[in-house]
């Protein structure tokens, strides 16, 4: 995953959250969009914030392994009837092949992309680090993964397996309901997942569950929770550790209403070339959700996505009374 | 606080939990009791497990600052009508002055106490450490504090202030109910609390809410939660950090049914000689309970204590299906 | 310990370090001095930076337990011939009684002191926290302790025991040299130390070894080391854990040349009213210095203090090539 | 990397270290060999300890991505003149193709391998975890990487690039010496390295620098250092974080004399399909070795490998006075 675009009805608030609290740096602005990156993200930007009347996903950009792979995957997506054609790209992004997921999420494939080079004052002595660790906020190191809600998990999963080479590492089924797939965690590399798909119980299509950024240090999730509490950012659940993927999680809602996950470690890494998909049953799901004592609130975690459904506007209203400090704070 | 005695209807299970999972070491056995200590506890034992038909508190032993103070405090308790007389002590404990708290918790004061000296093989190169850190389990360093349920928080709190020199650091009141005290956190030293008192909504008297052991390292609470999950010990809530005391908490139920807190840091330390008591209102209690996203389950956290009330037997039954490994495990 | 004053020949650089990298907040400026505090420090300021041609200690302020104690201690210091008389105080500090340590360190006692109250935007929902955790830098929570070099450790130690009520928790002797005291760690509360005294091998008097600030979270020392590396602050040793006090340490030199310790936990807390002083022998000192594999460099750790001796100017010159970003950095 | 074999002249001591202190579990014994695994290792064993008169590497087993790849790589190695022929395998390992590295390290390729299935009592509720986290020792999760000393880094590196598909992620050159390669870090997946090669300044061939096991939690390196200090295991350096690979390291010597690294995080993960090799110059090597203040001791880190050279026997003698507890300890 190279980049993601989030829609936000509160561009100033979202910008405050991602730059002041999460310490991301701005790399460009254009019209209603602001481009941001984490300090170890390899490319020009990993997050594009765009002003919009409703929150949600604007786009997900996947980088292929080669120019040939881009052409090959584009053909496969066209054959699947999901392609939306070639684009001329974006700031820092060359031409892309657009498509939508079976559930309607906007995505694109790209090969040509601008690698980030820091100006001298921000170059790090740690040579694998693309820029100095920022001194403001509690900065995650890179964009990690995306979790999508889908009205039909299996269809969404299989498309990604068949056209883009994803493997399903873990899945949850409801054995009491004939084995319906409730969730799936997919990866094209050693990570436990780069994309997850969870069933949208409301039946809505094309919604975002969350976008995740990676710390790699469990304590940083505790620190992030403390800063969110101090500065009025709504915490949904965590810090705790998922049984599924073994990832250390913290879920919060950024001021625009999108759910953001902060990922305190890498979870399980998979190195077996012939690994099997692990299947959880809904009846034993507790450990899958959290190894510790965290409860993922049923009234939000399993039904709230962006854009929200009508009934969810009320949930959003409750978050508006935050004591956020929009302009940041002086030393 | 020098030592505590817990009653347990499952002595073997409790012993497994405290020695195999928490890595405490046994220092003596006598009749139906087993004496245990953490590796930095200064005295002969900090925990005495005693077989009993119901869980709950057997005793709490407070060490005075001098022999004179023991006599002075005993007199004050006798004047308050709470003294139960001098005893000849216990293994590792000299004569004590027994008393009950206003709510009925059994307690004792002691000066003469046996300091622990490790056998040569267990002596640590770290000279302030009374014995080597164990290689088994995930060992807490020392007994930290006790939390008592009381039918009347204010009475309980004031007795300890007036007769034993405790100061109230933080308290919670219900402003909507005329300012009734719901909880109080008391200390005689720099710690945020050595004793807490929380209102027993069931009206029962003399019950234990929890006994706490100290790690001093936040990550160890996450590790402990993982081991509890793996070995079938019921987790109630956490790991997270309380706003009150700023202590990092994990609540679990040991196999005998008593709630145990593992404390991953020291929380706020108080060094002001003229500090004020901090007062939380029940309406703003969320941050007081947890800085992160943890929820303390209303059906247990605010009503369950040991010994349990009749209705609570059902809660206990649910914990019996644990996949605990009583005999430990071979390497 | 209520506050400390540091002299610095690079006021701008020191201010950058304490505010931008350590996230302290400025509370006042007056003439050549800037007043700073950590976010949980209880008083108006804990650190006063004063421009001076050489680095070193300007003052250490100890708060007494009561107004009576102030008078009593002042009398004792006068009788010891160390008193320098009453002052009218400073910004946020009422009248003080000045004195010098036997080795010549400037100090003062105070009772009347201004407690810090945050403006509304910086008030924390965590009620024991005097102000919100800052969003800039990696902020320690409070001033922790001071370590002084002394030409005669025993004389320095005994004066503090006899006139100010300090207890010696741990000490190091050179058994091969007739038991000469090399170092002593003293406390008036549960902490492992609030003041340490280490022998100045150069025979110089009245020098500072280091001033320490407290994180209470071990990971934060690793984070601080990373930021110091990134931003050109010279690291002397750590992160590691001392055997003495069991404190998690990181030693760095702030741009003015003073050694600063960041303290990642509280180390051992002492609750025994009748504890003994622990004595380390120089021959077994390795574990005392570091539990892990850190080495404290002999060419700086045991000889460098501030103000430096003539030969130490060369050491300081080496630190000048840092790639510090004086003006901070934009998001 | 699927498994490694270590030679040890102190089989009992080495077994104590890997099982009692590091909490690995034994899966088989045969003649002079003991087979061990970490709790998340996927295969029958990841470490084989074999009694031998000198420490060192017995073998390294690499698993190919498919049966075809095994044949293809075997042919390439034969063509390079390094193949030593097919074997019938080992306990838990099917037929292998043996080869030696250009510098003389014994290695093998394997496809058929026994996946580990835990007995019911050790099965974990966390379904991606092959067995419960042990309750003894401080258990790493899996075998991570190997670091080999080589008389010629470039030759060793290029063979692995050309015949086995490794990519060089980072390397160190001595620009002052014509750009000679001093070290190289290679990987076939997203990890920063699975194999490193460092120049053997003594000119000896085929030696092991270290074998590494992965915790994935930085605090566990601090805990491991503390246990090593308590139980007499020699610590060489750390805990700290390398600039190269950004891995959190702790180096210790197991009782047999082999250097073992404990890896507290995953370091940098590389997801760019077209990433460049990062080149460090020896003159700027400080940050590469450690981000914090750790110093890697020149008298051991850059010259000691196993088997040791003659002059290194004296180093080994010094480690024999450890206060190791061979039989473990009772609770």
CATH topology of chain A: the name is 2,3-Dihydroxybiphenyl 1,2-Dioxygenase, domain 1
N-C termini distance of chain A = 36 Å
Major beta sheet summary of chain A: 9 strands, mixed
What is the arithmetic mean of pLDDT of chain A?
Answer: 93
| Tally of strands of chain A | 17
Shape of chain A: globular
Taken together, the total number of domains of chain A comes to: 1
How much strand content do the residues of chain A show? 25-35%
* Uncertain ranges of chain A: 320-331
Query: What oligomeric state best describes the polypeptide chains here?
Result: homotetramer
CATH superfamily of chain A: 2,3-Dihydroxybiphenyl 1,2-Dioxygenase, domain 1
Largest interface: A-D, 42 and 42 residues
* Number of contiguous helices of chain A: 6
Structural class of chain A: alpha/beta
Any guess at the CATH architecture of chain A?
Roll
The side-by-side strand order for the widest beta sheet of chain A comes to 14-15-16-13-9-12-11-10-17
Gyration radius from CA atoms of chain A, angstroms: 19 Å
Classified by CATH, the class of chain A is Alpha Beta
* Helix content class of chain A: 10-25%
């Amino acid at each position: 995953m190279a980049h993601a675009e989030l829609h936000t009805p509160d561009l100033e608030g979202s910008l405050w959250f991602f730059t002041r609290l999460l310490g991301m740096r701005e790399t460009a602005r254009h019209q209603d969009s602001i481009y941001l990156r984490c300090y170890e993200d390899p490319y020009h930007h990993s997050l594009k914030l765009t002003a919009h009347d409703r929150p949600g996903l604007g786009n997900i950009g996947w980088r292929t392994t080669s120019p040939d792979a881009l052409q090959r995957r584009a053909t496969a997506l066209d054959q699947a009837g999901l392609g939306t054609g070639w684009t001329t790209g974006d700031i820092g992004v060359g031409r892309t092949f657009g498509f939508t997921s079976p559930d309607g999420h906007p995505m694109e494939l790209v090969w040509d992309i601008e690698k980030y080079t820091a100006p001298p004052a921000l170059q790090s002595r740690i040579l694998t680090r693309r820029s100095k660790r920022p001194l403001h906020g509690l900065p995650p190191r890179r964009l990690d993964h995306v979790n999508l809600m889908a009205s039909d998990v299996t269809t969404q999963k299989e498309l990604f397996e068949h056209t883009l080479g994803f493997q399903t590492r873990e899945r949850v089924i409801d054995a009491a309901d004939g084995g319906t797939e409730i969730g799936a965690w997919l990866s094209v590399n050693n990570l436990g997942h780069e994309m997850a798909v969870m069933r949208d119980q409301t039946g809505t299509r094309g919604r975002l569950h969350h976008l995740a950024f990676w710390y790699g240090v469990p304590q940083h999730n505790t620190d992030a929770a403390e800063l969110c509490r101090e500065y009025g950012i709504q915490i949904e659940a965590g810090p705790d550790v998922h049984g599924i993927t073994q990832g250390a999680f913290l879920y919060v809602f950024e001021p625009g209403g999108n759910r953001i996950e902060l990922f305190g470690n890498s979870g399980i890494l998979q190195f077996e070339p012939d690994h099997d998909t692990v299947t959880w049953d809904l009846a034993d799901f507790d450990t899958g959700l959290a190894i510790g004592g965290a409860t993922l609130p049923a009234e939000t975690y399993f039904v709230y996505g962006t854009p929200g459904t009508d009934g969810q506007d009320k949930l959003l209203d409750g978050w508006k009374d935050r004591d956020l400090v929009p302009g940041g704070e002086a030393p």
